[in-house]
Amino acid sequence: AQTVTQSQPEMSVQEAETVTLSCTYDTSESDYYLFWYKQPPSRQMILVIRQEAYKQQNATENRFSVNFQKAAKSFSLKISDSQLGDAAMYFCAYRTIGGSQGNLIFGKGTKLSVKP
Amino acid sequence: DAGVTQSPTHLIKTRGQQVTLRCSPKSGHDTVSWYQQALGQGPQFIFQYYEEEERQRGNFPDRFSGHQFPNYSSELNVNALLLGDSALYLCASSDSPGGAFFGQGTRLTVV
């Protein structure tokens, strides 16, 4: 069975600085999707960034980028120029390609605090 | 576009009771998934509906059941509520591998 591990329960960053959140996963499949979701206190899960395992290029969305290391099964999220609005829980998630859409396997999350 | 909407936002039930949670998917999405998120944990997959049928199911007992209507909206039913069923219930919809879109969830408290 696939698993997702986030080893940092909490992280803190100064406003305008850069922070990296870690995620590792375990799977025997060669093709899959990886995601980072943000969950602010409003509770709604917001898709931050997506990576397809068959693409070697790391995904980037504005201030958010990932470091995808397929052999190491590592998928870290880098947030540049951190803003107060980035404070939230961040969840790493995995989904198979051949399986049903939306069946995500989540890590336990990392709580990110942003200091002004 | 209203996105994924869930109702109610909060709910308090007594042990042994039954509850129904509702979800309207994002416009154009035909697949609805339900997740349970306990406090301090990541969401856990309950089941997924597509074309009004349960397509896939996570490791949840039969007390958890669902339904999808022709307009793609969905219900999650939980029977014989236990204290441990207290959680945030999230609905997500999708129509492609591009990632699921979530609603704001229903906070269920069982007393």
Question: Short description, anyone?
Answer:
The complex is a heterodimer of chains A (116) and B (111). By secondary structure, chain A is an all-beta fold. Chain A is built from no helices and twelve strands.
Q: Estimate the helix proportion of chain B, in percent.
A: under 10%
**Outline of chain B:** globular
Mean pLDDT across the residues of chain A is 92
Distance between the termini of chain B: 36 Å
Task: Work out the oligomeric state of the chains in this entry.
Answer: heterodimer
The count of helical stretches of chain B stands at: 0
- Low-pLDDT runs of chain B: none
Largest sheet: number of strands, sense, barrel closure of chain A: 6 strands, mixed
For the largest beta-sheet of chain B, the strand count, sense and barrel status come to: 7 strands, mixed
Stretches of chain A where pLDDT is under 50 for at least 5 consecutive residues are none
Order of helix and strand elements from N to C terminus of chain A: EEEEEEEEEEEE
- How many strand elements of chain A? 12
- β-strand percent of chain A reads over 45%
> How widely separated are the two ends of chain A?
41 Å
Compute the CA-based radius of gyration of chain B. 13 Å
Name the average pLDDT of chain B: 93
Which shape of chain A, going by the Cα principal axes?
Answer: globular
Helical content of chain A stands at under 10%
Counting DSSP E segments of at least 2 residues, the number of strands of chain B comes to: 11
Quickly give the structural class of chain A. mainly beta
